[in-house]
Amino acid sequence: MKRGVALEGWRENLHLSAWWIVVIENIEKALAKYWGYDSFLPLQRQAIECIVHGRDSVVVLPTGGGKSLCFQAPAVLLDGLTIVVSPLIALMKDQVDALTECGVAAARIDSSLTPDEYNEAIARVRDKTLKLLYVAPERLVSNGFLSLLDKVELSFIAVDEAHCVSMWGHDFRPEYRQLGILKQRFGKVPVGAYTATATAKVRSDIAEQLHLHEPETLIGSFDRPNLIYKVHHRTDRLKQVCEVLVRHRNESGVIYCIRRKDVESLCAELCAKGYRAAPYHAGMSAEQRQHSQDRFIKEKIDTIVATIAFGMGIDKSNVRYVIHTGMPKSLEHYQQESGRAGRDGLEAECALFYSGGDYGIWKSLMREMEPEARQIALGKLNEMYSYCTGGTCRHHVLLRYFGQDLEKADCGACDLCLGELDSLPNSLEVAQKILSCVARLGEQFGGSYTAQVLVGSRDQRILERRHDELSTHGLLGEHTKHAVHDWIEQLVGQNYLAKVGEYNVLRLTAAGWQVLKGQGQPRLLKPVQKTAKGPGRVAKVAQDSWEGVDEGLFEALRELRRTMAGRKGIPAYLVFGDRALREMARNRPSTPEALLEVKGVGEKKRRQYGKIVLATIQDHCVAHGLDMDL
Ligand code: ADP
Ligand code: ZN
């Protein structure tokens, strides 16, 4: 189907908007036919409309927001070839394999292809049988490749991971900079840029560097309601990690460690306990890393224990938990790493175990940095630490950090909102004592010093300054300095206090002054050692997604998926996602038509796997006396 500007003949008589509606309707049909989905995720329709209208766009959606479909679905339907620029071979391979599984004509051109594979891809471009072609940026802008593209009709160009063009992003790639020539060379072809990186600076940089023409900017919500965040003080690493793992038997997950030697030791400890885990860090050879990664993606092991070297280019959709055994150095890092969980929209647990020592390690590593960069890095570190110690809903804090707001007060998916942590019954009173001490100290001191004054320390520095004579000295004498320091961090996290300057001097915010007048609801957590409250209520996302699912059948289907994927040599989640398996184990279809109703089952997958899936469901239901076609 041709785009608006290129209408000819009878089509010109049709009102343009009517034409667009037809196109979008057809894209909806393609969505069902190839992907087995019956509706768009938020902003997918708008993103697709931009392409259909011939408009440039910058689309910012969080991980799992469904960015790929924004360009894959229109590519299938529009006339001509869609070019997708992607930074990593692993990403291209994953997407091309997924598209091929769905029955979409897609190929990639990268340095890993054999000459035969390469020639075949070029031949498919020339004979116009291809809908999507994935290429790396440096190849795309080479003269030879551009001349090849001059000879074919292009529907549009999608720039995936578009933050790579910006120096302000977290993954700048100089070769992305050259993509600016695309708009000059193929002026009429719309360009869509897709990223999960949220900052305004990166967004405008993307538009500028790519020379986009009045681009439509679409920005999704960065909340990931299906991620259940939990934060604990680290006391016994192995025990705490195992407590998470037992909740996720046979499920895939990632455990992040700060250092390589922690990766090695934790992985060995887990294997000794019988967990199926493999290590991944930059100190291993490329083959060893590849081996670990392959076994994880093909579900031959459940858990990968890794440094942050692991993750880029991994699109595995059914990661059910991400555990951090140490605190990352910024919320950006945390969001990115924890965000690898639950791409399929199903519930996933993100547990973080931190200690004050982690803060110290990062801070000392920053000592070598240039003053300006160090200041920024320290600010980010402090925000991360506040997240850990804070008594505020985790979803709220993360979202606020990225400049967005969560509408509901109770997210229903973090340790605080689920009631797993106890707060002090007299939080307001304790907060007032702390805030008034900060005020008495003339807002000149940091958290550690203030905590010392509050617990009544007779440290030399305190006596010299005669702070032992303050009315607030010893006001929280029945608590430990550690607990008081944690509460100070919590007040920072809740925006009653701010840390300013190089020395993180505490200042009262406007909200902090209100608390001194008895207004506001600060929430302080009971000291960690005493917080043995155990699990609170179950997150609603987790409850809903398992509602009515026969778990035995789900397991049987998972096993079947693993076998089929193994035979084809593709990742298990590309055969069917967890969401599709759960729906099958819930509805238990008995006919090919009913199977096609399952979200994530398109026509090709039904043809390919329908028979064996239906047989497995049938056998299980007969054996266990279960009803079918619910
Ligand atoms: P992103 O690249 O933004 O992280 P993906 O494109 O990998 O997200 O999509 C995340 C998950 O959502 C995938 O499992 C994908 O199949 C699924 N998905 C995408 N679009 C839809 C849709 N319209 N309905 C249901 N699931 C969808
Ligand atoms: Zn919450």
Report what the structure shows.
The protein is α/β, with parallel strands linked by helices. The protein has 28 helices and 15 strands. It has a 7-stranded parallel β-sheet with strand order 3-4-2-5-6-1-7, sandwiched between helices. The protein has a 6-stranded parallel β-sheet with strand order 8-13-12-9-11-10, sandwiched between helices. Strands 14-15 form a two-stranded antiparallel ribbon. Strand 10, helix 13 (286-297) and strand 11 (303-306) form a beta-alpha-beta unit. Helix 1 (16-35) crosses helix 3, helix 18 crosses helix 22 and helix 24 crosses helix 26 (578-587). The chain is globular and about 85 Å long.
Offer a few descriptive terms.
630 residues; Rossmann fold; seven-stranded parallel β-sheet; six-stranded parallel β-sheet; globular; binds adenosine-5'-diphosphate; binds zinc ion
Low-confidence stretches: 4-10
What's the helical proportion of residues?
40-55%
What is the CATH-assigned architecture of the largest domain?
A: 3-Layer(aba) Sandwich
Shape: globular
Number of domains: 4
Bound molecules: adenosine-5'-diphosphate, zinc ion
CATH topology of the largest domain: Rossmann fold
Look at the structure and give the mean pLDDT.
90
Calculate the terminal CA-CA distance, rounded to whole Å.
Answer: 38 Å
Name the strands of the widest sheet in spatial order.
Answer: 3-4-2-5-6-1-7
Number of strands: 15
State the CATH superfamily name of the largest domain: P-loop containing nucleotide triphosphate hydrolases
Helix count? 28
CATH class category label of the largest domain: Alpha Beta
Task: Kindly provide the radius of gyration, computed on alpha-carbon positions and rounded to a whole number of angstroms.
Answer: 27 Å
Strand proportion: 5-15%
